[in-house]
Amino acid sequence: MASKRRRKLRRKRVGRVSYYLHRGAWWIYYRDGDRCVRRRIGEDEKAAEQMAALTNAQISAGAPTAFSFTPISVADLRQQFLDYHEHVAGSSLATVRRYRAATQHLENFTARRGNLAQAHQIDPELPQQNSWVNSGLGRLPRL
Q: Which residues does residue 11 pair with via DSSP β-bridges, in sequence order?
């Protein structure tokens, strides 16, 4: 008599997103257009299931997923940052004024460089190498 071995269910699905255990960590898999996307979620199956459900909802709604990347200009990023601190975080007017001045320096710097149209193109080490920063301001704090 042939032995009856039960196959272990390897992949689980939530709509168009699957999640699976691979080398001790849970991963999700889905297709974004014609591109395969695999992302490590962590060691918790429940977290993987929740992220798969969230990603499936975003795909179904046609919205960008939590893992998608959208380039943004420095000016737009600055405006979103200031709007967030002014309207959502409820930062004080003095704090927003300081943020506005500091981020204006970043926007001016990228405009002078000319080749930094998008925020993701900025090298965090670049401003520290320029003479205008090192001359009077010292080194910028590392966040």
A: 20
Question: Could you tell me which of 17, 11, 8, 9 has the C-alpha nearest to residue 50?
Answer: 17
Closest CA to 26 of 17, 34, 35: 17
Element (H, E) at 106: helix 93-113
Structure tokens at 31: 């297709």
Q: In what order do the strands lie in the sheet with 11-14?
A: 11-14, 17-22, 25-32, 35-42
Query: How many Cα atoms sit within 13 Å of 136 on the Cβ side?
Result: 1
**Where do the structural domains in the chain lie, given as residue ranges?**
11-61, 74-135
Do residues 29 and 67 make contact, with C-beta atoms less than 8 angstroms apart?
Answer: no
pTM of the model: 0.50
Question: Cα torsion for 107, 70, 80, 128, to the nearest 10°?
Answer: -30
Query: Which has the closest alpha carbon to 38: 20, 15, 57?
Result: 20
How far is Cα 116 from Cα 47, in angstroms, rounded to an integer? 37
pLDDT digits (tens, 9 = 90+) for 61-77: 887 787 777 788 888 88
Number of neighbouring beta carbons within 10 Å of residue 129? 9
